[in-house]
Amino acid sequence: MAAFKKVLLKNMDKRGYTGLLKEYEKAGGYQAIRTVLGKMKPDDLIDVVKRSGLRGRGGAGFPTGVKWGFIPKDHPGPKYLCCNADESEPGTFKDRQLMERDPHQMIEGIILASYAVGAKTSYIYIRGEFILGAKILNRALAEAYKAGYLGTNILGSGTDLDVYVHRGAGAYICGEETALLESLEGKRGKPRSKPPFPAIFGLYGKPTVINNVETLANIPHIVNRGPEWFMSIGSPPKSPGTRVFSLSGHISRPGNYEVPMGITMREMLEDYGGGMRDGKKLKAIIPGGASAAFLTPEHLDVKLDFEGIAEAGSMLGSGAITFMNEDTCMVWAAERLLEFFHHESCGKCTPCREGSMWLLQIMHRMEAGQGRHEDLDLLLRLCGNIAGQTVCAFGDAEVAPITSTLKHFRHEYEAHIQEGCCPFRGKPSELVGTGTSHQH
Amino acid sequence: MFSAEAKKKIPEILKRYPIKASAMLPLLNLAQEEEGWVSEEHMCEIAKLLDLTPPKVYEVATFYTMLNLKPIGKFHLQVCKSLMCALVGSDTLIQWVDQELGITPGETTEDGMFTLSAVECLASCGTGPMMQMNDDYFERLTLERFRTVIADLRSTGECELATGPFRWPDPEVTT
Ligand SMILES: Cc1cc2nc3c(=O)[nH]c(=O)nc-3n(C[C@H](O)[C@H](O)[C@H](O)COP(=O)(O)O)c2cc1C
Ligand code: FES
Q1: pTM of the model
Q2: Residue B129: inside a domain
């Protein structure tokens, strides 16, 4: 591990690096588009990305090159590329850093991806709250246009590309790729039923690729250093490359850490997160953002890659890992997540819309100590009627906190029912925060 | 109504998209930038610009939580209450707001200066407790830092504790 060198966060580690164009160029930026544009066939670029084994960093982990390959070659166009910068999965805050500290790395990735799929227009859908992020991206795009990396006939290669920043306005669901497209078309952000998939019927009904910020930021490096290099780091063959993990919760050093995939959860917690804070014991881990099932200290030796976390019964998701200490009430934690899902359900599918309300009501009374034994089965039955019954993966996500806490911490639910109150006197909400304890 | 200055931005916004309706969120956001909220007049004007009916604009506007359809205080404090922030004290932060300003989520101070909202995850889960105030993020809040923010907003309307280009951990920040 000592030999590991950061890839995506490398530039910003340099003292004084602000992400301006000249700094990015000095660090070797915009070489990849020189290698590719007009010199390499788009299909060959798709092949390079396929061979690298890169999988999407937005949540689902779909192989990026394969996704690009679904775009019909004979389609007259227009075709679109959308960069998913919605970063709305609770626990996740890596794209924000990638965009605000090294925007050109992602923009170069957008240029390459657009070239591969034949898109002449690309939209960066950024969550509305990232006002600073949108400003930084717009400044970077202006620099790139001026340098001839965007616009018509880029670097004399005959390639054209326009990139626009499109701000959302507050809606978790717009991170789901088809809801994102609906929102971009000026509608309520409600997911579409699939098929047809966006590669066939995407933005304005045209072939469209949607990729996460971090996914795209990897592309220039794969071009510069080759797919074999990428395949050699991380946890090949299925989870090659690095991942920027966002660590949060009761740990000494929360934050973003780029590591090769395949290190263990324990290494992540101890070597990067600085271990648990205040000498407390670890109780639970959410390994992939709010949509991922809870894990326990028994899972500290699982590998942080797509398969390792899936085998443990959860998912790597957006790469957000939350650690909770022994004082944390699991019923309270699941209730808090349910509040989120209830608030964010877009309302399109009945099981999700009505189910989230119902689940939340039960969780409220459970946490208040007014739960009944029958509620435990009722919760599971409800969850079973939501998961897999909705147009998008939101339904599966909203039940994960409940089914997984019931699986690993059923005794805490029972204690609430038996004692008629929450047995955790000191609720974690009374502890304050990273502000007081985070010191270097 | 859009100000003369905002109107100047509209043609450039419309040019970005092959269909007009795509300018919906950019125009709603532009409207909100003017006075902190989106009025019915604004929505009617947007409908005209996009060849849509006003209810269509209203339908979209009501979907997105950032859009305020009523006037709000000059400084909009939005405290993230989602789990990761709650683990490190966001409920306490909400109490501090009540202590210092006498408002709970959904309320505005009598002088119209501060509105408090409790919101869902804002993507600063490693640097909680935190809040967004208008365009800015304030993170790793302690009672002391929170009081500084409020005092600065009252006196100058801004506060230098606002987060710049985000990076955490940041070796250049030691407090
Ligand atoms: C409810 C929901 C929310 C999502 N939120 C995000 C998000 O904020 N950012 C993101 O990149 N992907 C998000 N996704 C995943 C996207 O649908 C999509 O898989 C991803 O953007 C594809 O890019 P990738 O292949 O590069 O990962 C979300 C999915 C669901 C079901
Ligand atoms: S949970 Fe508060 S910012 Fe993410």
Answers
A1: 0.96
A2: yes
